[in-house]
Amino acid sequence: MPSLKELRARIAGVKSQRKITSAMKMVAASKLRRFQKHAEASRPYAAAMRRMLAELAAATAGQGELPILLEGGKGSTHLVVLLTSDFGLAGGFNANLVRATRQLVARLEAQGETVRILPVGRKGGDAMARIFPTKLVDRITGTGGREVQFQTAADLGARVTDLLTSGQVDRVTVVFNRFVNAMTQTPTEEALVPLTVPENDNKTEYSAQYEFEPNEAELLAQLLPRNIQVQFFSALLESAAGEQGARMTAMDNATRNAGKAIDDLSQRYNRTRQSNITKELIEIISGAEAV
Fold first, then answer.
1. Is the bond leading into 214 cis (omega within 30 degrees of zero)?
2. Most confident region among 64-68, 132-136, 137-141 by mean pLDDT
3. CA-CA distance, 291 to 281, in Å (whole number)?
4. Does the bond joining 119 to the residue before it have cis omega, within 30 degrees of 0?
5. pTM for the whole thing?
6. Which residues have a Cβ under 8 Å from the Cβ of 243 and sit 6 or more positions away?
């Protein structure tokens, strides 16, 4: 049985941990409000970008071969871009993404495709280096700052565009956690190349309803790389909001568990102390009777 000194030390240690987890919960909550606002604001813009490009693609149909950034290459090499966090202590935020990526890779390989992986975030990079070391194209870290900068998405988009235009990959899918609320982040697979329009977008037939200046082909050439950057930016914002929500929930659970542990240890401490007092009293009474 632990001594009173050991129990006091354990209680003090758990109280110190509770202070840390409580502080981390409050920090995550303050960040969550800001990231959630940015993520929700990016969704209409990203969806409108996809719709506009679908209209442009419909307008250019039959005018020659479509750009590789629109319809993908002719090969079967699929690039999976995995967006995770640089830091842990966020519950199952990263583990769920890694599991979803493994399932996606297995599904693509079953279809006869060659898979390459580009992890963004230290946690995803470490996991992919252990699971798929031969499939890594590169590793990108340092994206988990205080704010998600568009330049980060622009650099990532330029890297992926280079892989596409050089023929190293033919299709691109990004895997990230879509933010729902503080307790729910949904692992999501979103195809970037070839271009797809989500089911919740307008399902009407896309046709050339406008006159474009300059012509549609020139607009596509300029907007397709930009679209990849915009979709990455939206995904990074969703991931950042989801990370803070997951961390806030995890730290709240940790704080509650620390409180329960303190209560249990305090009861053990009081029982042990009472037992020692009773034992000492019995020894004193036995000694007095012996005299």
1. yes
2. 132-136
3. 16
4. no
5. 0.85
6. 85, 90, 93, 144, 177
DSSP string for residues in the chain: ---HHHHHHHHHHHHHHHHHHHHHHHHHHHHHHHHHHHHHHHHHHHHHHHHHHHHHHHHHTTSSPPPHHHH--SS-EEEEEEE--S---STTHHHHHHHHHHHHHHHHHHTT-EEEEEEESHHHHHHHHHH-TTTB---B----SSS--HHHHHHHHHHHHHHHHTTS-SEEEEEEEEEEETTEEEEEEEEEETT---TTS--SPP---S--SS-HHHHHHHHHHHHHHHHHHHHHHHHHHHHHHHHHHHHHHHHHHHHHHHHHHHHHHHHHHHHHHHHHHHHHHHHHHH-
Q: What is the pLDDT of residue 238?
A: 95
Cα–Cα distance for residue pair 247/85, rounded to 1 Å: 11
Q: Which of 28, 151, 152 is nearest to 81 (CA)?
A: 152
Select from 111, 149, 105, 91 the least CA-distant residue to 119. Answer: 105
Q: What is the largest CA-CA distance in the chain?
A: 114
Q: Is residue 63 exposed (0-12), middle (13-18) or buried (19+ Cβ within 10 Å)?
A: exposed
- For residue 53, pLDDT beyond 50: yes
The answer to whether 185 and 177 are in contact (CB under 8 A) is yes
- CA–CA dist 150, 133 (Å, integer): 29
pLDDT of residue 72: 79
SS (H, E, C) 247-259: HHHHHHHHHHHHH
Is 278 buried (19+), middle (13-18) or exposed (0-12) by CB count in 10 A? exposed
Whether pLDDT at 203 is above 60:
no
pLDDT given for residue 208 in this prediction:
46
Radius of gyration over every alpha carbon of the chain, rounded to an integer in angstroms: 28
In the block, residue with structure tokens 């060659």: 114
